Amino acid sequence: MEGEVSESERSALSLFFEPQSVAVVGSLREGYFGGYVVIKTLLNAGFEGRIYPVNPSYQEVLGLKAYPSIKEIPEKIDLVLIMINRRFVPNVLRECAGKGIKAVIVVADGFAERDEEGAKLQNEIVEIARKAGIRIIGPNTAGIVNSANGLTPDPYEPGYKKVKSGTVAICAQTGMINPQAFPYADLHYGVSKICDFGNKCDVDECDLLEYLENDPATKVITMYLESIRDGRRFLEISKRVAAQKPVLILKSGRTKEGAKVSASHTGALAVDDQIFNAACKQAGIIRLEKFRELFELPKIFSLQPLPKGNRLGMVTFTGGVGVLAIDEGAKYGLSVARLSPEITKKLNAIFPDLGKSVVDIGPPMAVNNYMTIYSEILKTVLEDGTIDCLFNVIWTSPFEDFVKEYVKFYKEMQGYDQKTIATWIYGPSIPLINALSSRMEDLGFPVFSDLEIAIKALGIAYQYSNRKKGEE
Q: Could you report the per-residue pLDDT of 235-273, keeping only the tens digit for each?
């Protein structure tokens, strides 16, 4: 909304993620999209609040009494989802105002992102909400998620029941982050909150940053943005939040062509990319470059401690990967650790000439007791006080027995005075790579899709840690 937003209105954001009651306005016909899907998804996820289907054509939906309109519901309502033709949204908002409702998600599209008439309707709902003190997420949004309480009012069929709880919050100007678009059920680090801003006619990135700043369930915040509504406020808030929690942002519209398309997507005007980049550096925001980084890089903050310094240790099965990792690490200020004489001696005792800066396990693979040697190597390297973070490369082999052995080693590592560890797994069997990755992340050790992103994860963790030290 235009103008200043009061503290009481900002506090209403908790109603979006912690409502005791939810009204769902729209089509209740069984299918793959709409109010029926929202209600089914809430029930499947274990949401324990009250749910009120709203549609004059229904008496009951999924065992719940349906109401002809918002005003006919006798109880207090915390949150309303609106999925109807855009022309009727203002009338429903007026009913919400009459009921004293303070939080509304407008899933309906066809507003400022579509045409002039839609822009006028968007301005109208903003004006109605402004006068009534209603906060709006949307329009043109796929909604929100709070994994802790089963609040998953996804209007699209996700195909699974629950989003795993965790400490990563993911917010974006796209529904591509919502449960129907991403396999959260298969994630092994979990998320705390999800929010698709949609057109940002009211609630925007600044509001969410402030809410997540004080959210105890959120440890790291990631965002995909196409525009910034209030640059000065964004800089002020993000600088404060980033001092407490890592804030990772992927911004589109880097080119003139991309900025033009983003305007047609959510009806927003993109900020100049150079200005945004400067703001990120000033605020301590970690800027992402690729969409998959939105989901992969937060793992290092969610599952691992921050590195105490930039000294990088490496255990690898191939010297070529070690060289590539050194080159990549240099981009982020990581330098290869020099192993201490004591650790070098121990490694050489395990296998001749093993005690080098980059520990290459290639030669020991040829011996029969390789898995025992691997365990000894890893333990020895992790004992070295000259290492702040570790890049561990694992070869799975085509045999499932190796997976069990690796998992056993990583279980033991949970009790160590832990370095920051990033793992990359390769081998001839994708199913075994995936199985091992899942089990290791369940133990709290993030696995990355390639060596470059694993090194980047360690690099940004070091940079964030270094910045925090400078601010203390």
A: 999 999 999 999 999 998 665 555 555 444 444 445 678
Distance CA 255, CA 248 (A): 20
Nearest to 231 by CA among 288, 287, 275: 275
Domains of the chain: 7-299 (3.40.50.261), 305-471 (3.40.50.261)
Q: How is the beta sheet containing 79-83 ordered, strand by strand?
A: 50-54, 21-26, 79-83, 103-106, 135-137
Residue whose token pair is 């009012």: 153
The phi-psi region of residue 71 (left if phi > 0; otherwise alpha if psi is between -120 and 50; otherwise beta) is: alpha
Angstrom CA distances, 260 to 7, 173, 268, stand at: 34, 15, 10
Peptide bond into 139 cis (omega under 30): yes
303 close to 419: Cβ distance less than 8 angstroms: no
Residue 12: phi and psi, rounded to 5, are -65, -15
DSSP 418-460: PPEEEEEEE-S-HHHHHHHHHHHHHTT--EESSHHHHHHHHHH
DSSP letter (8 states) at residue 151: B
CA distance linking residue 176 with residue 389, whole number of Å: 33
pTM: 0.89
